[in-house]
């Protein structure tokens, strides 16, 4: 089968892969798809939308010069491709890997694939949920090779149909490093939020048990986690977002003693009060203990008036 220079083969049709496939089709690309489970509803959905489904992975890869992987983990890439290596099907292909993993995963994949004939390897991370793929808010971090090759290989144009391509460097692992760094902030927010919701749930239950007058009972009964989040929690988090820029600037400018009005000793006491309060109310605060230890170290090393940005230096190994 002669490989197409204008089409693309997409391997993996989970939620993100399916969203990518629709974006490719919307941009007018000729698309060949492959998925380990051919009966997945997204396969039929995409064929109806104009994609060509190829049940044989080797044939799917042979159909186009650019191959995009979006599978659960890097190990799935090796499992799928190892049986095909001897056939030479990977020779001169351009591989774009949008599978979530670590920087080392990306570097090892680049070496492994190039040793088996792949001409160019790019590794990337899509910085939106599947619902926002292909929209103006979508950004795709990409690394590997160089920017000239990103352009001449056609990968920049291809990625543009998913989101704004943001090239981060020639080391194949850099985009993955950015990806997991940003996602760590997301998961940190989630565990903090869920700890907060557990504590609020305790207070709502306590208020209901101790309410006496009928008016009070009705007011308490109307309170739930959703309206507490809407009224108090989301506005608080929104107001704190700009503080991340202050922390970044303090680190960039070697100005970590700048506490921005929040001295470290005050924060140390606050975080320990939160942990103690959680323990008293029956809420697990284990996720906060490491942060509390870091605040104590900062106070010890840099003084009670130092800034939160000093924590950054303690996280570097």
From TrEMBL:
Mind telling me which Pfam families this protein's record contains?
NAD_binding_2, RedAm-like_C
| Superkingdom classification of source | Eukaryota
The reply to whether Membrane figures as a keyword in the UniProt entry is: yes
User: Can you give the residue ranges of the 6-phosphogluconate dehydrogenase NADP-binding domain?
Assistant: 8-146
| Keyword line | Membrane, Transmembrane, Transmembrane helix
Span-the-membrane segments of this chain are 180-200
- Please state every residue range assigned to the domain named NADPH-dependent reductive aminase-like C-terminal: 171-301
Per the database entry, which stretches of residues form a coiled coil? Answer: none
Citing just one GO molecular function, the answer is: NADP binding
Record's keyword annotation contains Membrane: yes
Query: What name does the UniProt record give this protein?
Result: 6-phosphogluconate dehydrogenase NADP-binding domain-containing protein
Q: Which organism is it from?
A: Exophiala bonariae
Upper lineage ranks?
Eukaryota, Fungi, Dikarya, Ascomycota, Pezizomycotina
């Amino acid at each position: 089968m002669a490989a197409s220079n204008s089409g693309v083969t997409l391997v993996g049709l989970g939620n993100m892969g399916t969203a990518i496939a629709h974006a490719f089709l919307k941009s007018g690309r000729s698309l060949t798809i492959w998925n380990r489970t051919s009966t997945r509803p997204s396969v039929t959905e995409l064929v109806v939308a104009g994609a060509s489904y190829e049940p044989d992975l080797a044939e799917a890869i042979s159909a186009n010069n650019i191959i995009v992987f979006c599978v659960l983990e890097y190990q799935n890439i090796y499992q799928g491709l190892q049986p095909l290596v001897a056939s030479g099907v990977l020779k001169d292909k351009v591989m774009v890997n949008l599978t979530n993993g670590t920087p080392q995963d990306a570097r090892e994949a680049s070496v492994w694939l190039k040793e088996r004939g792949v001409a160019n390897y790019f590794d990337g991370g899509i910085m939106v949920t599947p619902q926002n793929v292909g929209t103006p808010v979508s950004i795709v971090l990409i690394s590997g090779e160089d920017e000239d090759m990103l352009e001449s290989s056609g990968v920049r144009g291809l990625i543009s149909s998913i989101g704004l391509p943001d090239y981060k460097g020639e080391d194949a692992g850099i985009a993955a490093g950015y990806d997991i760094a940003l996602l760590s902030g997301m998961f940190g927010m989630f565990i903090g939020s869920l700890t907060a919701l557990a504590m609020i749930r305790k207070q709502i239950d306590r208020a209901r048990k101790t309410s006496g007058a009928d008016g009070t009972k009705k007011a308490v009964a109307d309170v739930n986690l959703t309206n507490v989040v809407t009224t108090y929690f989301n506005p608080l988090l929104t107001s704190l977002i700009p503080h991340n820029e202050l922390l970044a600037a303090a680190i960039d400018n070697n100005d970590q003693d700048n506490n921005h009005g929040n001295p470290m000793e005050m924060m140390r006491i606050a975080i320990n009060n939160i942990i103690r309060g959680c323990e008293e109310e029956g809420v697990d605060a284990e996720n906060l203990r490491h942060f509390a230890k870091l605040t104590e170290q900062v106070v010890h090393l840099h003084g009670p008036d130092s800034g939160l940005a000093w924590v950054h230096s303690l996280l570097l190994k």
